[in-house]
Amino acid sequence: MHLRRWEEAGYAALASALGALASLLVLQPWNGSLRVPYAYIGDANFYLSVLKGILEHGWFWRNPSLGAPGTQQLFDFPNVSGDLLDVFVWKFLGLFTSDPAVVLNVFFLLTFPAAALTAYLVLRWLSLSRAAAIACAVLFAVLPYHFTRGEIHLLLAAYYAVPFGAYLVLAVLGERPLFASRRMVAGTLAMCAVIAFASGGYYYAAFTIVLVAVACVLRAVALRSWRPLRDGGLVAGTILVLCLLTLAPSLVYWAEHGRNHVVANRAPYESELYGLKFAQLVLPIEEHRIGALARLRADYDDNFARTEAAPNTPLGIVAALGFLWLLLVCLLQLVRPDRRFAGDLAGRAGVAALLALLFAWSGGLSIFVAAVEPQIRGWNRLSIFIGFFGLIAVGLGLDRALAWMRGRWRSGALVGLGVVGLVVVVGVLDQTSRTFEPDYAALSASYRSDGDFVRGIEAQVPAGSMVFQLPYRPFPEAPSLGAMADYDLFRGYVHSDDLRWSYGIVKGRGDDWGAAVSQKPVPELVRDVKAAGFAGIYLDRFGYQDGGTAIDKELVAATGSSALTSADHRLSFYRLR
After folding, report:
1. Pick from 453, 391, 396: which is nearest to 424 by CA?
2. Entry pTM
3. Same domain, yes or no, for 244 and 324?
4. Any bridge partners for residue 572, and if so which?
5. pLDDT at res. 334
6. Alpha helices in 338-469 (DSSP H)
7. 531: how many CB neighbours lie within 10 A of its CB?
């Protein structure tokens, strides 16, 4: 028994290693540097700021280096509170380096073997063969979703909890007991904990709860039994309670200070806006390696409105074929209920995939959820569940093919492994694109230019000095301004060692001192900023239509100091004497 467990652990490690290898061949990180993030725009800069705050100050709720002259508090924007497991991984990596870019990159690279590992474990629990489980685990780890989310949507890219959520849905739909013994209870609770503590910003936890809830109702009606409701209710309730525990600091803060309805205030219509389209699931990825397929996708994108789902939901040909087969099984079963067209697992996976599609589809069942709780709006992100269900069908098909080959030829097992390997290679090539490799040269030039610039500021002002940042941008979730993306003002903080920055105070609480000051004429702004104790003014020229030419002249005149400018001429600093 122990030998068998070690053998299984070895195959699980192999699946994880192959998932990592496939991702490395696509990303080719040796062309870049771990000290330069693989994304340096948008939400990636927010995650860099959170990582740096955790490494410097221990946790993420408060950061005294941001929001000067106050302190940044993230209780109103608990973006990472549902991913405490990931935060602990960040802290562990922080034992070896204080560089947030290194932690960000290493963590992102680790999400590939982590996804392959959990997928392999679940596929084996579902009784797929080792060969099929390894193949599907690798394909799951390198679904297009993983690369297009990337470091910009870091927590969504860390989707290693999804196979556990899928397993719980399938278990509730079928005869797999979840609470029949102490061992099963422990395993179920462990899966619930992983889902709640690595929830992708609460998305994967919410999706699991919704799918489990509907699945247990369907099962209860079909069997005319309360047992599915009990099991499904325990699973959904456990995940919900654990999620509320991760949100406890915000709940306590809101109880004392009231809700901040300016931050992350979602509207029900957004659930339709951020839904997915069936065509986007099954069409090729953007910039496909094969020119004809790339043109097919480009033609679609040219004729239909582009949404968040467009680059993120394609499944790739292998998972898409599995998904289409599951839908066909569901339809055939409806047409001929007296005949069984597939095995039990395929049937349950088909129902689960159909449920996920009905919720994720733009204008689908998600609008009824949104009427009650609109905070979960990105229903297109259910595509990662659909992809896993589709790969279950692929794994079942591979097992049937392997069994057929073993029975037909003496060397059938070897031929079968060759076929499995071919499926993996074709799948990986189809699911990935050369454009998934980051532009390491451009990233390095921009990142190092900003780093040199901030070190220049630190050489001019005393340690602990406050820096006022222009143009003013509300935090969080502000629209782009000129060529300046949201969260770009975190760039200064990411590179600094001992400065405090004005950006990052949460809007809507009335304590954003910079909001009013930034509206004043430049001479008054400089006077007030200096009186508040700031040592200088940081300017991002990308936030101005004229490239900051006019305000640069005004700041030079008002401060009486020449500007320190970054090598790429984007950033300037004006010391207040």
Report:
1. 391
2. 0.95
3. yes
4. 539, 565
5. 84
6. 344-360, 366-372, 383-408, 412-431, 440-460
7. 9
Q: What is the mean pLDDT of residues 498-502?
A: 96
Q: Which two tokens stand for residue 454?
A: 């901030």
Whether 430 and 464 map to the same domain: the answer is no
Q: In this structure, which amino acid lies at residue 28?
A: Q
Residues 515 and 390 in one domain: no
- Say how many C-beta atoms besides its own lie within 10 A of residue 491's C-beta: 29
Residue 1 pLDDT > 60, yes or no?
A: no
With respect to residue 224, please indicate whether it lies within any of the assigned structural domains: yes
Please list, in sequence order, all residues whose beta carbon lies within 8 angstroms of the beta carbon of residue 95, skipping any fewer than 6 positions away.
Answer: none
pLDDT tens-digit series, residues 185-195: 999 999 999 99
Residue with tokens 């949460």: 506
* CA-closest candidate to residue 509, choices 60, 70, 61: 70
Cα torsion angle, 540, 545, 549, 553, sign: negative
Domain of 349, in residue numbers: 2-32+75-436
For residues 276 and 361, the answer to whether their CB atoms sit within 8 Å is yes
Does residue 69 have a cis peptide bond before it, meaning omega lies within 30 degrees of 0? yes
Omega before residue 113 within 30° of 0, cis: no
- Residue 273, CA distances (Å) to 152, 199, 380, 429 in order: 20, 22, 9, 31
Radius of gyration of the chain (CA): 26
β-bridge pairing 571-575 and 564-565: antiparallel
Split into its structural domains, the chain has a count of 2
> Is position 319 within any domain?
yes
- Looking at the predicted structure, is the pLDDT value of residue 487 above 90? yes
Residue 289 sits in the same domain as residue 262: yes
Identify the three-state secondary structure at position 121: helix
Residues 382 and 484 in one domain: no
Place of tokens 């995939």: 353
Residue 222's φ and ψ, nearest 5 degrees, are -65, -40
Return the pLDDT at 481: 94
Per-residue pLDDT band for 336 (boundaries 50, 70, 90) equals confident
Residues paired with 575 in a beta bridge: 536
Among residues 436, 456, 486, which one ends one of the domains?
A: 436
Q: Are residues 423 and 476 in the same domain?
A: no
**CA dihedral of 50, 55, 56, 57, whole degrees rounded to 10:** 70
